[in-house]
Design brief:
Length: 590
Amino acid sequence: MTDTTLQTPVERGPLPLPAAVARPLIAVGAVGTIASAFMSWTWTPDFPGNLTIYGYPAGLQILALVAGALTLLYVLALWRVKGLGWLNPAGATSPVFLTALSAFAVCWFTGIAIAVDLGGLVNLDPGAYVAMVASLLPVLGALALPHPAPGTGLKGYLTKPDQPRPGTLSPLVERAVVTIGTALGLVVFTYGIGIDDDDSETFIGFLLICVFAAWGLVHAGLLDRYTTMSTRHKGFAACLAFVAAVIFPFTQSNDHNANIGVNILIFATVALGLNIVVGLTGLLDLGYVAFLGVGAYAAALVSGSEYSPFQVHFPFWAAALTGMAASLVFGVLIGGPTLRLRGDYLAIVTLGFGEIFRITVNNLDGDSGPNVTRGPNGITQIPDIQLFGFNLGDAHTLGSFTLGRFANYLFLMLIITAIVVLVFTRAADSRIGRSWIAIREDETAATAMGINGFRVKLIAFALGASLAGLAGTVMAHVNYSVNPQPYQFAGAAPPNSAFLLAAVVLGGMGTVSGPLLGASLLYLIPEKLQFMQNYELLAFGVALILLMRFRPEGIIANRRRKLEFHETGQLDVPAQTTLSEDTAVTKAGA
């Protein structure tokens, strides 16, 4: 009997090296990269991180060490070393190539940065040359391995390979994996946020290794398997994420990093509210930051500031309800007459509302209008929040840890963010949430099926506005003041409507973790890369263009969006057949 089984052609990589040479080349390069981290890379400590000490990696050397270790693990997985098969179950080439690129990018960026910042290649010590040469070897070796997708050229290295069906694990093991993944995420975030604001080179290296290493983990199928496990144990994973966020302040010796964490949570909470309007309902709102301002101003007016014309001091819970109610009312008042519009027309109206709010609070200064908001000066000296006898503005000692003012507000925002996440998930899974999704997909069809489109959209608009107002009440106390300047469509620093919309689109519309990740990236990156402040909007634009080209569904996408934007190989539409001419005539005659 003849064997008709088709053999998949094996195409060599671009470099004509045998596999017996390619794999050792990768391993030698990875070991060399690791070893170089223990050498001096420059003679002067003027370069960020002090890379002058032998035997003690610091700054970018630590990142090179991690990238080299990842590369070594993946090449050992190709050799089928016992216990490492789970790293690359498909035996694909692209994860090895991408992890090798992470080490190459970090080492070569560091060498170039040292030469540029310090004035020439003469400032490089032998360790830097060793790192650059050693990190190049794994890239060359990976290009000599079998091509991941024969006939596709370079694109094959960037296309995610097919993965075998993962085996089943016991629930206890899966929860252990989720716990380890959460712990690693906390370590990575803590390291990134702990990089000094002046060490922009170190943070760029951190971004490089995060991008390429995460890309490699995606190609290896690890992130997909981790996501599946987290989804299967959703409640457990959410609790772990909350615990990790609670642990974060205890890992920081500088309250400034807690301040960054507070602002990230504030903007992430607002982005979640916008996600209801944009992600679930499909309404393009370009003036959403105004609802954040309404909540902040409402809380400032009733929180005991001596510059408030009302001279009242509500407790925080009452001030928070006041901010939410004010934003809710404005949401209904603006949404009522405008939500019958669609598409670009609705976007223009919401953009106008945002500008009207900013101009109005700017003019309520006692000269152009009644003295309510003090115009450009804003309302200042807003007192700190007091909850259950604790003043959040005072430092508190817990054992051997001292929690500063921003750490206290971080805990408060964690509770508020958890409440907002709960509201978002429950609303999205409810009957009204399914109505939002139906409106987003096809409003005409949804209306024909009996859904009251106007009422459903108004509920989404009002709920999103009230959640933004809740975040605004905390922001007013954190900043001690409110003024009109931040509440614009686009600006050099958040909050602004463009920033919030970019956080939702970048992270992934319609998801919970997407806006949280998007807000974290869009706030943390400009904070650490101070030299890019004048080019922040340009960087946002370039990032969004690249995202729309390569991952239009966002970094974290739900299954529906992923199927919409990518070919899946599924026969969603049955094959159409046409009747022959004779058959058509016969049936017509019948």
